[in-house]
Fold this sequence. Notes:
- This protein has about 280 residues and is α+β, with helices and mostly antiparallel strands.
- It has 2 domains: about 5-150, Regulatory protein AraC (Jelly Rolls, Sandwich), CATH 2.60.120.280; about 160-270, Homeodomain-like (Arc Repressor Mutant, subunit A, Orthogonal Bundle).
- The protein is about 45% helix and about 15% strand.
- It contains 10 helices and 8 strands.
- Strand 3 and strand 4 (about 45-50) form a beta hairpin.
- Mean pLDDT is about 90; it is low at about 275-280.
Amino acid sequence: MNNVEFHLQLNHNDTWNMSRLHFHDHYELLLPLTTPGNIFVNDQVYPLRRGTLYLIGENTLHRTMATGFHARYVLHISRKALVELSTPQTDFTQLTQDPFRRATLDSTQMTEIIELFQALERNKNDGSFGSDIHQTVALLNLLIRVAPTLNAATAGEAIRNKDFLRVVPILDYIRDNLSEPLSLDQIAGHFYISKHYLCRIFKAATGFSVMEYIIYSRVLLARQLLQEGVSVQQAGERSGFSDNSHFIRTFGHLTGVTPGRYSKEYQSSDQILLRGNPRQQ
């Protein structure tokens, strides 16, 4: 249980709105303390509400859409940490089986989970004797409490307002054709609408642009291909990048590492996880 990889934040913002889509290599446990708005996950929009606990998977495209004051606990925890903290009887890796889950909490459950977040926040590892143990115990107490609730949860019903229903076919079309050339003109022509209208309804429904969604989706697809052992060149081509140098630059800009380095690091960490997983021994 040494060097358990996680990061906890309690964020308060008077005026807050996530500016763009993003994804990461860890799992995100999100507990809103206010009722700020909506959350876009993959190709669906869900309400973001106080009294609901959210679990967002690794490599899951998402963006919270809110304005005004927003407070939330955010815990980022790696797959490696969930493996290390698991036992044959208490398997936290069950949390990794779905890209998104949300569980509605009653007032008693909400209070209890907030107190566990607060305990984890208090028990920071400051380097003093025993602080690492106290921190791990606080993290385990939180995971033991939320895991059964989240394991029984699903994504639930997405928001089906008029604006979003108009772009669902567009999202489906983009997702199904990422490996093909995609431009605003081509997509607009496919749906017999103007490019201006396409951009307007897409932005209104999702909060971001068509091309932003395409680029992030392509990088995510490339990451998945690299995780499967596909070469950098093939991963770029199969995810819709016609130029390898452009793929490498875009991938590095959005992930912070080159595709080649990402592939090597993923394969190396994957082998470590297999060796360290008690259920694999």
